Give the backbone structure.
Amino acid sequence: MTHHDQHGHSQGGVHAHISSTGMYVTIFFVLMICTILTYAVSTIDLGAFNFVVAIGIAVFKASLVILYFMHVKWSQILTKLAVVVAVIFLLILLLLTATDYTSRNWLPDQPGWEKHQVLR
Amino acid sequence: MSDTNTMAVAHPLPEEHVAHQFHDAQQQYESGNLGMWLFLLTEVMFFGGMFGAYAVYRAWSPEAFKLAAATTNVPLGAFNTVVLIVSSLTMALAVQSAQLGKQKRLQLMLVLTMIFGAAFLGVKAVEYSEKWHHHHVPGLNWQWEGEGPREVQILFCLYFAMTGMHAIHMVVGFGIMLWLLMTARRGVYTASYYNPVEISGLYWHFVDIVWIFLFPLLYLI
């Protein structure tokens, strides 16, 4: 454990958190267990919940990678903000697309619109 | 999590590593990090468009998704998921080695990361050739005897677009690792200057995260 406090203004080095090998290996094993869990759950028929569970586990795995492997847990506030903004932008993209897709059928069919039988 | 064995260190930085526009090494380090995250933000939107298309077409024809997913090779996809997580671990340890100034360990971890990255691409090539063999390549070699050829074909288009763009990112990542290894062998990276290793690691982990979502969406459900 070394604590140099030479974080000066003119020179000085880089202050950054250094995680232990044990922590990285722990996160690795949690990711592996989650992968096995993802596969195990997919073999059980939960109906629509299969999708929810798979995405839920994937989001949890991605969060672990972002926080620990990508060091965001110890990053400066601006970096954390960039990560949150990325998530918000992605949600805007996906949710606004979803509002369009789900509300299409609320309108009566317009002349010229072709009906196509879709495999469901 | 066992965070107890962590430490904050600071090392004097050779002056030549601080570019003139930065106040000090810390500002340079944080600016580089933030810049990489802004690039990753654009990458999130890039892949996000394809995930959006996936969501719409999945809602459009869920049955075709089940038919298409049933043709994917789950053991190979699972193997590749494990390979990528291992490569993320070696990448994280490469950054840690650079932070601690362990030159040999840094080079070893970069080589391991490249080996796992290459293994991933090799398995992907096997999967693609399987798809070609079964005539499941839209536009080039397409034949579907079962139900809903039109809907299923769209899903295979998404499969190739998403895994293909991911594979291209892997190839780019492999090139970055090669460059890091060559510069690391010259001893460029020290405990006080390792920004390139760290932000290349961010890229590698991002590509891993994309696959974390692709595997269940394209293979399992």
Q: What stands out?
A: Helices of chain A lie at 21-42, 49-69, 77-103. The first strand of chain A starts at residue 16 and ends at 18. Residues 77-103 of chain A form the longest helix (27 residues).
